[in-house]
Specification:
Helix content is 22%, strand content 48%. By secondary structure, the chain is α+β, with helices and mostly antiparallel strands. It folds into two domains: 127 residues, no CATH class; 95 residues, no CATH class. The strands form two sheets. Strands 1, 2, 3, 4, 5, 6, 7, 13 and 14 form a nine-stranded antiparallel beta sheet that branches. A five-stranded antiparallel beta sheet has the order 8-9-10-11-12, covered by helices on one side. Strand 5 and strand 6 form a beta hairpin. The longest helix has 37 residues. The radius of gyration is 24 Å and the shape is elongated.
Length: 238
Amino acid sequence: MRGCLFTLLLGGIVIAFIIVVGLPPVAAGILTAGLTAAGLQADDTTVTVSSNPPTDLLVFHADTVQVTATDATFRGMQIGELDLVLSDVRILDRTAGTLGGELRDVTVRVESGERVTLDKITLAGDLGHVTTTTIISAADATSLVSDAVERQTGVRPASVRLAAPNRVTVRAGTTIRGRLVVTGAGNLVVRVDEGPLGGSQLLLVRGGQDVPIRLTSAAVTGDGDLRLTGDLTVGLLG
């Protein structure tokens, strides 16, 4: 009898050990593979899986999953730091109830070929619809407009001024006035209202290609920076 009780107790301990210690790394491995398939590359990607009670992991459900990485790349973006938290994660289905987090020190190559650094991209939503928000500095935003005007006219503007909510004034021998607009295709353009380019559009950022984000809105802040909002166009977990 004692032998049977000892065997049952030992078996229970082994099962508990497997659940608490063994299942989280297995779940983390599955999610890491999904992140890699989605396009995330980094030497130090860390996926931390937790659930209460731990037995939920037997059916591959996690309460929270945290993903961190440094010096990463994702769909053409170079990312200094990545920190994401997902909740209510169905691991095998690769779905989550909510997602939130940040990408910091992000560098992207835009339509002109210029590299633009974004201090931070904020992500929020769920894996079916992730909304992103970022700020392009005034210096980088005016440089993007200058490049677009120069491509179109062959003349480098003497000055570019952005003003809230979305106004653009360019001086390049003559004055060009327009508006920053997000097109139906999710691209950021300057729609020229006045000047020799009147009626035309100058492409600044091609959404979904220059960045894996379909832009939905653009606005100039009080400091002259450019705030962009959009929807992530690719799945994060493959």
